[in-house]
Sequence to fold (295 residues):
Amino acid sequence: MLKTITLIIFYIFLFSCSASSNSEDNNIDFSDVLNSQNMTDSEKIIELKVQLSKQEDQIIKLNTDLVNMSFSFDSLKTSNDSIKFYFKSQIDSLQIEQTMLVGPEFSNNIIKLYNKVNILEDRAFFMDSLYFELVTDMVLIENKISSMIGSIEEIEIINDNLNNNIYKDSITIDYNYEYKIAHQMYMTANYDSSIEKFEFLLNNGVSDKLADNCQFWIAQIFFIKNDYKRAIEEFNAVLNYNNSNKKSDAIYKTGLCYIKINNNNKAIETFEKIINNYPKSKYYSKANEFILNLK
Fold:
């Protein structure tokens, strides 16, 4: 039975490595589409949606694999519990016979049994940790897809605004055009220039309809660059915009930042804000799951 458990752990580990490798191999680069000189904005949007659909298919496959992983994990825990119960029963039986058995052999057997029980407990803890890491990685992938969906929707809105000459708040600055350029820089991973452009808009009177988005993408760039403490500051700044539609996104990603800097208490506190204040948010169930795993 121990061989079976070892094989299960090996296959799970092999599967997780394979899934991670496949995910990396199937990453889609949007830069070629965004930088294409042969496509109109509308054609770019259509092509981006096609590529996004492919990534959503990958997410569905990963979710299926995660369900299978969870089933294997539950089966392993059941087997571990059975083995632990068996060993504890054997220990109890040996303790009853202790008065009749004297010598180093008996003591050695007791020590071996206790060691085996400890090994099983360590393996169970390892499986708990592995499962939580897989869930965390899955959420980060879903979060990336969600950001891409939001980006495409924003491109569509900005294109409509440009076509209709809407929201031109200054004679010398076309805010919608400048925002579109900053967002394209973000999509092509030109992060420093993107931050500079978003900050320029914030400092030069961009309308509230775009200001909270500028602030959100600045925070998102620091998140991508693994500067999680700075990202927390920038995401919190999004909450200063009363009518922002990015608040639940900013709160959720702040929780992810706290996980990354190993501050689980603050992460739980942040995810609870989603539960208490945004019950209809797309992050509601994910926040619940993180709270359960972090406690």
